[in-house]
Amino acid sequence: MSSSGHQSVRLEGHEDQCAGRVEVWKDGNWGTVCDDRWDLREAKVVCAQLGCGTALRVTGQNGLFPPGSGPIHLDELNCTGNEQNLWFCPGVQENSDCGHKEDAGVVCSESKALFRVTTPAPPSAVSSPEHLSILWLFSLLGFFATLVTFLCCYYCRRDDERGEEKRADAGVKNQVTVSVWTMRWES
Question: How do residues 142-168 score in pLDDT, each as one tens digit?
Fold first, then answer.
C-alpha cells in the first residue's frame, strides 16, 4: 500500500500485493475505482505508485478479481501514465455512475502469482495445431517457390542455349548471303 494522506492506493482481492482490484483511500475510507476509461495508462500509475513495476494487464467488469464494497471514489480517469499518483489524474471524484461489478483491477510486472498466467508464451513454445499447420504451409510454399525458381532457370538456360544456336545458324546464313551478293556485284 502506498500512503500519503488521502492519496493511498492498494490492490485487493488477491494474495499478491502487485495484482488485484484497485482501491484508494479518501476521507477515512477505502473505495474502489470504476473501470470506465480504465486502461494501461491508469494501471501504469498504480503499479509505479506501489513500486510494483509496470502494468501488464488491466481488468474491469467481470475481471480477475472479486468486486469490492463501500464507496467508489474515482471514475472516468484519464491519466497520461506519467503521473506520480492516481489522484493526480483528471477524472470524476463524486457521484460515480458505476457499480462494484465494474471495479478496476491491474496486474503489475512484479506480480508473482499471475505473471505466468498473463504473459503469452514465447513463439518457440507454441505448438497448437493451428501453429503447426501454418508452419507446414509456409514450408510447402517455400518448397514450391524453390522448385519454380529451379525450373524457370533450367528452361531459361535451355532457351538461351537454343537461341545461341539459332543466332549462330543465322550468322552462317547471313555470311553466305553476303558472300553470294558480293560475288554477284563483282561479276
Answer: 787 788 887 877 776 665 666 555 555
* List of E strands, the chain: 9-12, 19-26, 29-33, 55-59, 72-74, 105-108
Looking up cell 492506493, which residue turns up? 9
Query: In the prediction, which pLDDT does 171 show?
Result: 52
Q: What is the pTM of this model?
A: 0.57
Q: SS3 for 144?
A: helix
Please count the other Cβ atoms lying within 10 Å of the Cβ belonging to residue 52: 21
The DSSP secondary-structure symbol of 37 reads T
Give CA–CA dist 77/88, Å, rounded.
10
- Signed CA dihedral, 160, 161, 162, 165: sign only: positive
CA dihedral 154, 158, 159, 160 (to 10 degrees): 100
CA distances to 24, 36, 69 from 31, rounded to whole Å, are: 5, 15, 7
Angle (nearest 5°) at CA 111 between 73 and 89: 30
Alpha carbons 167 and 187: distance in angstroms, whole number: 30
